[in-house]
Amino acid sequence: MNDVGRRRYATLAASLRARVQAGEWPPAIALPSEQALAQENGVALGTMRRALQVLVEEGLIERIHGRGTFVRSGLSGASMLRFFRFGSGRGGVPRSTIVSVKRVVTTAEVQRQLGSAPGAAALQLLRLRSFDGVPCVLEQIWLPLPDFELLAAGDPGDWGDLLYPLYAERCGVQVHRAVDEIGFGSLTAAQARHLGLPAGHPCAVVKRAAHDVAGRCVEVRVTRGDAHAFRYAVTLT
Amino acid sequence: MNDVGRRRYATLAASLRARVQAGEWPPAIALPSEQALAQENGVALGTMRRALQVLVEEGLIERIHGRGTFVRSGLSGASMLRFFRFGSGRGGVPRSTIVSVKRVVTTAEVQRQLGSAPGAAALQLLRLRSFDGVPCVLEQIWLPLPDFELLAAGDPGDWGDLLYPLYAERCGVQVHRAVDEIGFGSLTAAQARHLGLPAGHPCAVVKRAAHDVAGRCVEVRVTRGDAHAFRYAVTLT
DNA sequence: AAGTGGTCTAGACCACTCT
DNA sequence: GAGTGGTCTAGACCACTTG
Questions:
Q1: How many helices (H) and strands (E) does chain A have?
Q2: pTM given for the model
Q3: What is the mean pLDDT of residues B81-96?
Q4: Which residues surround strand C, with CB < 7 Å?
């Protein structure tokens, strides 16, 4: 609890981080100006700027010249399709089809990732994404209940093609950070049927854990697509 | 060529970048101090710091408290093994076996990546890496000639287990940046034989283009390993 | 015009490394 | 102790967005 010897901007950054994670500033309403924050904390303007810069680099907030400083809203460009090259997919948003929605008791593995209690309930979705009617990837998705109770009630037909905006609008859940783990496997007969591929066909498997701004896991997702369509680039420096 | 209206630190950063890429400061000898650079360019210290910070973020230089500012030397942690999970590989450096070395005329694809002229010569290596005598990944490597002429002459037996330090010591080539593109495929009979797997076995394929500090491509590499041992994590924010 | 973040300055003082 | 980068200050001025 003692800050002696600690860099002042780091202390300020920690304090601001806590306030952001506690939801003090909802997305779309600005934080106090750097002037105000500096005064409030009795530090020079440059020091407060430095503290804010830390949170910017963490991806927690964004600063817009002339407008203000804002808590970053949901993830953009998180589509699984970025892992695959499909002939017709010219950057557009692929169609989403919800194959099934059921209330389940999570398996131990999913439970661990969601950080929920043993025997906790979840909503399990099966979702197919396609370009021009051609199925590309198949997704299994688990959402913790009761947070997503409103989705369990609704009609999947009007959910649209993107899930994260849906989570935000209907359930007030903002996905802020995600970790994707890439692996390899082969399709079960049932999975292959949805994708129009032979059973046992090789597939890329992307396991995602998505978290909100406070670090709580709000979605577990397993995506499968044809291994031959998989491509992903990494830059090292 | 005109800097009017441009941010001063960006101009300074560009100037420094050019000098670094021209090789003005070899690795291990320090750049002038920020004081000296600021004075030399007639700007405040903070502005020069900001310019240096740009190059740090680009991964071009690194600053060490109390010692000075240095051009970053070769890539570290660039091992292909980071893409795979093998039972025995507890973080150690795997053994490297050079299967073959030959002088070749590059294919169009490799030529394009190396940025060399049509019909240009290259050195082609075939390399097997193993833990405890168990082969893990197989690599095809192309190196532009005449830059790597000294390797063509030497005995692969004394090359050791790491290539990038070898490139630096024997040929004066520093690998500074690399782009790895991940995909999936299957092994040819010859490839499978080296890895002790059946022909046609699914494999992960990592295609790398490695560049020096000036941006020139100095190595093309294709690495293959058992697809079932592949795993890679990506974080999105 | 008022308010926001971005750039630049000039200087003090601190922390680390080397000799 | 001399020299390096890292932190912090106090303030001027600029560029962008909004009413």
A1: 7, 9
A2: 0.93
A3: 82
A4: A 5, 30-31, 33-36, 46, 49, 63-69; B 7-10, 42-47, 50, 64-67
